[in-house]
Amino acid sequence: MSGNAANKIAYQGVAGANSHMACQVVFPEMEPVASQSFEDAFAAVSDRATEIAMIPIENSLGGRVADIHHLLPESGLYIVGEHFHAIRYQLLAPAGASLESLKTVYSHPQGLAQCRGLIRDLGLTPVTHADTAGAAKDVAERGDPTEAAIAPALAGEIYGLQSLRNRIEDRLGNTTRFVIMARQRSDPSPDTPSIVSLVFQVRSVPAALYKALGGFATNGINVVKLESYITDSAFTVAQFYAEVEGHVALREVDRALEELQYFSSMMKVLGVYPAHAFRADR
Asked: Would residue 128 show up in a list of annotated catalytic residues for this protein?
């Protein structure tokens, strides 16, 4: 491994994971660095062991990646880009295994969620694992013909597993959205089609959320994502993660954010970054 952190990109998982593949697609000139957890991937950037990190946040079949919206605001990093990555899973097993011999399948919860149909049809017992490629690695090390892993083809190649089925997702077009994290904001030019990601909390008063979001409606700003989650043990404080189309340098976006901040007890912009071409294609 080279010593130049500026040429490295962190990802969660082990070699062969979808995050690893996304790094290769978007930044082929950079060296992917595996991290055991999302927190470790964030820390690699914060500690300057890598320049950036590739982090999955949602999937078209499996939904939001668990815990990620709690971790993003706490990471101290900023979103500087996004990538939509086509997910293609295979059912990987050791040599000598067959569809008939399988009893158990291992994968990340997202991998299992995205392939429920196959798991049900084959009558397999699903077992969660920290990541898809890690599941493939462990299945390869045990060599048990009753076990299989749901993982990308790259993991099968790296760990010497055979593919018993390919393209096993419940629906074609399965896509994971990644965000690229860095230590500093890197806003594109105002004329670039952009996305603003932010988190905020509203005061506990009637119609607070309605009032906070009113500025986006009156200024013609499209809110493309709004999710809430509880942040305290008493279930009284809700934090919202939002994404809007536009750029903070545009007057109408600035006015909408100003109104949001007025009705919020906390607001933080997590990043302003170019909208991926995937959005325009859809």
From this structure: no
